Amino acid sequence: MIIGVDMGASAVKLCALEGERIGYCGTAVLYDEQPTTFQHGRGGDVPAMLERLGLDAAEAEAIALTGLAAKNSGLERLGRPLSYISEPEAIGEGACWLSGRDDIVVASIGTGTAFVRAKAGEYTHLCGTGVGGGTLKGLSVKLLGLEDMSRLNEMAMRGRNGKVDLLIGDFVEGYGILDQEITASNLARMDPTASDEDWAAGISTLVLQVIGTMSLLACEGSGASAVVVIGAMAGSAPSRRNFAQFERVYGTQFLIPEHSACATAIGAARRARCV
Q: What residue ranges do the domains of the chain occupy?
């Protein structure tokens, strides 16, 4: 068994690989009232997390760490060899393995978003943006008083972003390849009848369209054939709807593989075999 740990700015993702099989994959976000806390960028008690999940670090062939807070995991006290894997390597390896593709741009949506070029086992960080899951949560808390992202996703799927966004159809019947439902300006419609669900749809659309647009530009600039989207937000219903629209309009394939939330932890575990 190889344990992979991705310690990002606001969550810990864990996996256990048994050969080519994923034995465990999940997000271990433990809040301040719990005995094993994880605070923004400052690490946490990963040994306690593993114990709580029934993963025995003593039985692991290797333990691989990646992410912003990888040096603050607490795993050093176990006395086991640790492999530190760079984030571009872990992101690229995990996305390629899960998607079965090796000529891609990876959009890794965490608190912010990183874009990695992956081709034939080579992984290069292209660019990034501060717009990501942290942005969405901040807007949700400020505008809707809502911290629960699952609840926000449900509301966004019931809402209409066209109640808070200006759309192409508000001005013309179409604009080149852009149809009437494409956003012309995010959050620019001052409609007093817009509901909380409409605002949830609007802020979700804003964040996801920024990520989608940057993904397209990264593909165009690097010559990649497709985008693989990973991270905790990747598999949400609003994400799937947004990237399906991008694929339909622009013709670039957007793939969201199974286990996308833990792709970077999985990539770290796989790269540890080569260290």
A: 2-100+262-272, 127-256
Same fold across 2-100+262-272 and 127-256: yes
pTM of the predicted model, to two decimals?
0.90
**What is the band of 37 on the pLDDT scale with cuts at 50, 70, 90?**
very low
The H or E element containing residue 109 is: strand 103-109
State how far the alpha carbon of 169 is from the alpha carbons of 145, 163, 173, 181, 210, in Å.
31, 13, 5, 6, 20
Q: What topology is assigned to 2-100+262-272 in CATH?
A: Nucleotidyltransferase; domain 5 (3.30.420)
On whether the CB atoms of residues 159 and 150 are closer than 8 A, the answer is no
CA-CA-CA-CA torsion sign (165, 114, 229, 64): negative
Q: Which of 97, 73, 72 is nearest to 255 (CA)?
A: 97
Cβ neighbours of residue 106 closer than 8 Å, sequence gap 6 or more: 91, 92, 95, 114, 115, 116, 117, 118, 227, 228, 229, 230
Residue type at position 12: V
Query: Across residues 125-147, what is the average pLDDT?
Result: 96
Query: Any idea which fold 127-256 has?
Result: Nucleotidyltransferase; domain 5 (3.30.420)
Asked whether the beta carbons of 57 and 48 are under 8 A apart, the reply is no
226, amino acid identity:
A
The reported pLDDT for the residue numbered 175 is 77
Where is 222: in which H helix or E strand?
helix 196-222
What percent of the chain has pLDDT above 70?
A: 93
Contact in structure between 189 and 220 (CB atoms under 8 Å) = no
